[in-house]
Amino acid sequence: MIKMNATEFKLNLNELKAERTRRGLSQEKLAEELGQRASWISRRESGVTDITIPEFYQIAQAMGCTKAEANSLLKRVTGE
Question: How far apart are CA 62 and CA 32, in angstroms?
Answer without folding.
Answer: 9
